[in-house]
Amino acid sequence: MGKQKFLGLDSLSFQDFDENSELIPLMTPEDEELINNETLPESLPILPLRNTVLFPGVVIPITAGRDTSIKLINDANKGGKVVGVVAQKDEAVENPSANDIYKAGTVARILKVLKMPDGNTTVIIQGKKRFEIKKVIQEKPYLTATISDLPEVKPETQNEEFSAIIDSIKDLSLDIIKESPNIPSEASFAIKNIESNSFLVNFVSSNMNLKVDEKQKLLVINDLKERALETLKFMNLEYQKLELKNDIQSKVQSDMNQQQREYFLHQQMKTIQEELGGGVSSGEEIEEMKARAKKKKWDKKVKAHFDKELSKMQRMNPQVAEYSIQRNYLDLFLDLPWNEFTQDKFDLKRAMKILDRDHFGLDDVKKRIIEYLAVLKLRNDMKSPILCLYGPPGVGKTSLGKSIAEALGREYVRISLGGLRDESEIRGHRKTYIGAMPGRIIQSLKKAQTSNPVFVLDEIDKLSTGNQGDPSSAMLEVLDPEQNNEFYDNFLEMGYDLSKVMFVATANSLNTIQPALRDRMEIINVTGYTIEEKVEIAKRHLLPKQLKEHGLDSSNLKIGKPQLEKIVEGYTRESGVRGLEKQIAKMVRYAAKNIAMDEDYNVKVSNEDVVEILGSPKLERDKYENNNVAGVVTGLAWTRVGGDILFIESILSKGKGNLSITGNLGKVMKESATIAMEYIKSNADKFEINPEVFEKYNVHIHVPEGATPKDGPSAGVTMLTSLVSLFTQRKVKKSIAMTGEITLRGKVLPVGGIKEKILAAKRARIKEILLCEDNKRDIDEIKPEYLKGLTFHYVKDMSDVLDIAITNQKVKNAKKL
Ligand SMILES: Nc1ncnc2c1ncn2[C@@H]1O[C@H](COP(=O)(O)OP(=O)(O)OP(=O)(O)O)[C@@H](O)[C@H]1O
């Protein structure tokens, strides 16, 4: 419903009308009756309406601009004040003829004629009765036609359907008025007061936002019920459109409100900041940043990003917190090395020299490192391989990384991944967090100041998965040559090229490294050292290093080989040399103290001095004991800290044939014990064991040294030997140690960690070692000097094990079973 058409009163006031003019719309059935009883003249002047349709009872203002219309109105106003009003088919037609107007129209009464200042004439007319043109009898000076009545067909007064339609029209028009901001609320007052159904339908039809032809269609429907229904349909459509429009508008409105609010707040903030003495952002700082930026070797993308962020900073007030966040952020861009590389030194001889200078032994490892450097040199694409040095603690993995950096002439950085459980430690926090920082990778590169350092990732096997994302998956991206040229740090908000970085990871164990990570690395095993090697390392490296660190030199303290050996054997029990270094540091401190206190001391230390300084040698638990007791056998184990020996003890006690196992053992070891037991039971004859023994006695197996958890199937042969020795009460071969898995069928299977196990056996002064035949190839790979003084027995079946390990001699005080 358009405002200008509603009641037709928008530009006029009531004072413009005579007291008795019939301005007030018809409201009652009596009014309607009056109109219907009026007799129509035979012919009428026809006033064509350009853009509306007049309905009976409705008052509308029309503007007459055309000369013909003005003449018609003037003539009629002077005469009977009655005209026929018919809508034009096409509003563009200037002088409509009979064919240009519809056939049906409404008789109108002129209520008022007003001369407007613009020369137009405004006429207030009221619709009376509908008519049909029979014939146009003259076209000049205006159209005149003979007409006939169009009688309205009314439903019976009791028609329920019609009443329902009328009610709906009323309700819906009230709804429409409520939803339409343009319709004055008085309109609802009018609707409520219209009593004549016919007039209600006309009133609504006239005021609806319909096209002329739609209104005309309504006008010519004689059946009032049908007309009402059609009107209701149009109203429904109109209501839906209105709802949609309001919906859109309220959305737009709320967006606007939000924007206005922000703008307003910003303005306020600005004012407050100015009041507090803040000014425009510090120009000097920005100029300095710009100068630094000029020296950076950024690619286009990074440069564009930096420029954008810098101009953001320029617009900020230096007093606000965001300013310093932004400055830190941009500082990081300026501090980070971008495409700044050190030239690699590919002199492999020199590299070898450096590796030899820093590390004693480790020949295989050094050889593999040199091979790697050679490949790097030949490929020359600067894409670096990822090395993973794995082995027990203190064997020099980390320090090898450092030597590699020196050999290549690259910068060296290191991060420890041990216990790191938060992905953001690697990838950083988004800069919107309070106290956000880049991840460790980016921080280390900032420290390195070059884009191609040697980057040591210590303890990659100890990366743990916490509830803050998975750091291993972030590491995967770091270590994947396909992806790491665009490593994304959350703080940096940019990809950073890590492909030129040479990563060297270290690990104590391969099992706990995520398999996908392990696949991406070249694994190099760094095994532990023999006693002789440790002595050499101590002499050549550890002692000079410690002397230097304490401000002394070799003239202040001399430790001979026998004493070093004593220290290694009596005070350390490890695969690496970290503990040894600590003991040597103690020796050096002793000298330093004496020098500082001006006291005499032996520069060349004796065995006694060693005991005096370090205390009496610690118990050497992992020393082979003897074979005097049945059921005690030495096994070889592999742990994360290197090889170790273990003793398996078993005893019999009167009982009902139960098997119990104690010690800090894993599930697999317990299974091995059960397998061994079953094997013995089924081969009791062979070992001359009375089968009744199994029912009369309980067996208890124990593995002492419970502090280090031991698991793995490799104790199988040891369990078996222990139990056979127990049931037969025969001695186990002297100075023998063994490792191997057993199966129910009596087979012996190969096991891992052989190198470490051999070193542990040597430390424990074992002479003979029993292994699966398939482990021979591991032994063949070990340097002969490591194997000096050891005899190997290779076996296939459990019976071979027993043939070798169990003697015919009964133990002292053998039990009679
Ligand atoms: N072969 C060697 N020659 C000289 N020094 C060595 C040798 N092996 C180890 N060291 C020294 O032993 C110390 C410990 O080595 P490092 O820290 O590299 O051990 P690691 O294998 O990385 O241990 P972890 O696994 O605990 O990190 C260092 O001071 C190192 O120089």
UniProtKB/TrEMBL annotation:
Domain Lon N-terminal: 44-239
Limits of the Lon proteolytic domain: 627-808
Keyword annotations: ATP-binding, Cytoplasm, Hydrolase, Nucleotide-binding, Protease, Serine protease, Stress response
UniProt-listed Gene3D superfamilies: 1.10.8.60, 1.20.5.5270, 1.20.58.1480, 3.30.230.10, LON domain-like, P-loop containing nucleotide triphosphate hydrolases
Binding site for ATP: G391, P392, P393, G394, V395, G396, K397, T398
Active site residues per record: S714, K757
GO biological process, one term: protein quality control for misfolded or incompletely synthesized proteins
Reaction(s) the record says it catalyses: Hydrolysis of proteins in presence of ATP
Record carries keyword ATP-binding: yes
InterPro entries per record: AAA+_ATPase, ATPase_AAA_core, Lon_bac, Lon_bac/euk-typ, Lon_lid, Lon_proteolytic, Lon_Prtase, Lon_prtase_N
Enzyme class: hydrolase
GO CC list: cytoplasm
CDD domains recorded: RecA-like_Lon (cd19500)
Record GO terms (molecular function): ATP binding; ATP hydrolysis activity; ATP-dependent peptidase activity; sequence-specific DNA binding; serine-type endopeptidase activity
Domain of life the protein comes from: Bacteria
Induction of the gene: By heat shock.
Major localisation: cytoplasm
Biological function: ATP-dependent serine protease that mediates the selective degradation of mutant and abnormal proteins as well as certain short-lived regulatory proteins. Required for cellular homeostasis and for survival from DNA damage and developmental changes induced by stress. Degrades polypeptides processively to yield small peptide fragments that are 5 to 10 amino acids long. Binds to DNA in a double-stranded, site-specific manner.
Family per record: Belongs to the peptidase S16 family.
Complex and partners: Homohexamer. Organized in a ring with a central cavity.
Record protein name field: Lon protease
Organism: Winogradskyella ouciana
Gene name of the record: lon
